[in-house]
Amino acid sequence: MERYPNHHLELPDLEQIDALLSQVDIIGSDDNELVSITNQANGVQCIGIGTDAAVFTTEQYPHFAFKIYSPEAMEKKTIEKSVYDRLAGSPFFAVCYGEGNRYLVLSMEEGPTLEDCLMAGLPVPEQVILDVKEAREYAISVGLNPRDIHLKNVLNQNGHAKVLDVSEYVKEGDDQRWDHLVWAYYHVYPRFNQVKVPRWVIDTVKKWYHRRNKASMNLEDFAARVTRLYDKLSRK
């Protein structure tokens, strides 16, 4: 089986897509909250919601994903299209086949996210981590700044990585999120490998992580706190 079959699809008929997606309305927020969806059409399924856009798949075009932006985020649509153009040719990112007035046409990528793997107790092989490293190096080589890479933005596709959501790759600064996840993979994850981690545990760890800088907690102390939570959970 070819590893990246979605890289060779032909662009679907945009007029048909426009007619289908015109029934879907995306409403943005001024408070950086998730967008709202109204008037969803038959045969169109939402598979992801963000603060600027929502992603849909359709029965008519199952091999494509359609990222529809809110009216307030049209500038971000243009930026993200330019990022995908620069990443074209890399097997580690989704393919952008084209765009409509308010959406991008992306390859539909299958597989659980790393967060899904944690919740289902699915093993994450080291090759996934190495693939993301190579993906980031490629993005840097074409003048981008790969950031905002986290558990929900990486798919495990049969032991290989696919990186999603490149919308922040034009921003400056290093958020260190992936670097910290790599550290956790080698120092903390072995305790969680193939253990089904409840949603509330993941959400708790995320909250701790976001507060870590304010508490001046280093990674070792943070890992120890997470491990204590795991040990407490495992004794129940």
Give an account of the 3D structure:
This protein is of the alpha+beta class and 236 residues long. Helices cover 39% and strands 17% of the residues. It has 8 helices and 9 strands. The strands form 3 sheets. Strands 3-4-5-7-6 form a 5-stranded antiparallel sheet, sandwiched between helices. A two-stranded antiparallel sheet has the order 1-2. The protein is globular, with a radius of gyration of 19 Å. The termini are far apart. The N terminus is likely disordered.
> Order of strands across the biggest sheet?
3-4-5-7-6
Cα-atom radius of gyration: 19 Å
Question: What sort of overall outline do the alpha carbons produce when their principal axes are compared?
Answer: globular
Total helical segments: 8
Residue fraction in strands: 15-25%
Question: Can you give me a brief rundown of this structure?
Answer:
The chain is α+β, with helices and mostly antiparallel strands.
Task: Name its key features.
single chain; 236 residues; alpha+beta; five-stranded antiparallel β-sheet; 8 helices; 39% helix
Topology summary:
Elements: H1 14-21, E1 25-27, E2 36-38, E3 44-49, E4 53-58, E5 64-69, H2 74-87, E6 96-99, E7 103-107, H3 114-120, H4 126-141, E8 154-157, E9 160-163, H5 177-187, H6 189-192, H7 199-215, H8 219-234
Helix pairs in contact: 7-8
